[in-house]
């Protein structure tokens, strides 16, 4: 995957064109394909990307864009019922977290679609949910590879960056006023942010601590993912225990911050 700075610049350039593309009548698939081609051009020869969109009832995924994935593959998996054995994308939408299938040939997640993927030469797939501004899942973004392997930390950060830009493009296609509404929401939060900056001795440390706790929660999800994808001979239970401990610690920190912020005395 490319360096984050190069990817960020390319996606920002793409963002500046989205509104004009939608106004002139380009389909969402056309817009998303351009996003994905930008990613693939920077990602190397072994990167085949796709975006699947979640149905309104939250039960099925269908292709929103897949510029280089073979049409025969897309036709055979054009409507995927989400679930724990519905490939990386179906499982990512089902569990609400990234699913990194390091070896499709052995990963149980690919139970219903393993043969199809292997027939087309795919050996690994990294999928992550796409969420709207309310945190609701609206689809998945995936990178298929013809080689096995786990994403690096840099690649995971790049995937997060891509999904954010893709989510914005999807929401702009569904609501022409999306950018204006988002800007209004940010303006509405501005007075609160100013109050925080005016009280550095108290609010800033608490906010920084909350941010650390929220990042710890995200790391717990990653630990679960690594445990799910790990070889059985590894200390899978240790990874699961570390994830659970991280969640409990983060929850305790956030609860204590909320308690103190409420102005009540600590018992």
Describe the protein.
The chain is of the alpha+beta class and 267 residues long. The chain has 2 domains: 4-174, Beta-Lactamase (2-Layer Sandwich); 199-261. The protein contains 9 helices and 6 strands, in the order ααββαβαβαββαααα. The chain has helices at 4-23, 28-43, 71-76, 87-95, 114-119, 153-174, 178-198, 203-229, 236-261, and strands spanning 48-54, 60-65, 79-81, 99-101, 124-131, 137-145. β5 and β6 (137-145) form a beta hairpin. α1 (4-23) runs antiparallel to α2 (28-43), α1 packs parallel to α6 (153-174) and α2 runs antiparallel to α6. It is globular. This is GAF domain-containing protein. Residues 27-170 form the GAF domain. Pfam families: GAF_2 (PF13185).
- Would you count the extended β strands for me? 6
- What share of residues is helical? 55-70%
What's the number of structural domains? 2
Work out the strand percent. 5-15%
Widest sheet, order of strands: 3-2-1-6-5-4
CATH architecture of the largest domain: 2-Layer Sandwich
Structural class: alpha+beta
Shape: globular
Give me the CATH fold name of the largest domain: Beta-Lactamase
Q: On the 0-100 scale, what is the average pLDDT?
A: 80
Order of helices and strands: HHEEHEHEHEEHHHH
InterPro entries: GAF, GAF-like_dom_sf
Protein name: GAF domain-containing protein
Pfam family, one: GAF_2
Features:
single chain; 267 residues; alpha+beta; Beta-Lactamase; 2 domains; six-stranded antiparallel β-sheet; 6 strands; 57% helix; globular
Layout of secondary structure:
Layout lengths: L3 H20 L4 H16 L4 E7 L5 E6 L5 H6 L2 E3 L5 H9 L3 E3 L12 H6 L4 E8 L5 E9 L7 H22 L3 H21 L4 H27 L6 H26 L6
């Amino acid at each position: 995957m490319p360096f984050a700075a190069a990817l960020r610049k390319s996606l920002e350039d793409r963002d500046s064109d989205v509104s004009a593309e939608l106004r002139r009548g380009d389909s969402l698939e056309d817009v998303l394909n351009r996003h994905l081609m930008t990613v693939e051009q920077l990602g190397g020869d072994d990167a085949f990307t796709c975006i699947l969109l979640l149905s309104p009832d939250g039960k099925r995924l269908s292709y929103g864009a897949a510029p280089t994935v073979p049409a025969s593959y897309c036709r055979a998996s054009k409507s995927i019922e989400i679930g724990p054995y519905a490939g990386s994308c179906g499982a990512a939408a089902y569990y609400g977290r990234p699913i990194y299938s390091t070896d499709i040939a052995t990963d149980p997640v690919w139970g219903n679609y393993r043969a199809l993927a292997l027939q087309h030469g795919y050996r690994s797939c990294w999928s992550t949910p796409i969420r709207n501004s309310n945190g609701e899942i609206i689809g998945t973004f995936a990178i298929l590879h013809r080689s096995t392997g786990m994403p690096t930390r840099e690649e995971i950060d790049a995937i997060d960056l891509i999904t954010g830009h893709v989510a914005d493009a999807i929401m702009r296609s569904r609501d022409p006023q999306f950018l204006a509404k988002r800007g209004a929401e940010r303006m509405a939060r501005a007075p609160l942010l100013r109050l925080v900056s005016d009280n550095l001795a108290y609010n800033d440390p608490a906010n920084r601590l909350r941010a650390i706790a929220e990042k710890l929660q995200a790391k717990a999800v990653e630990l679960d993912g690594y445990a799910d994808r790990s070889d059985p001979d590894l200390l899978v239970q240790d990874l699961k225990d570390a994830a659970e401990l991280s969640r409990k610690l983060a929850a305790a920190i956030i609860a204590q911050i909320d308690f103190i912020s409420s102005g009540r005395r600590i018992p």
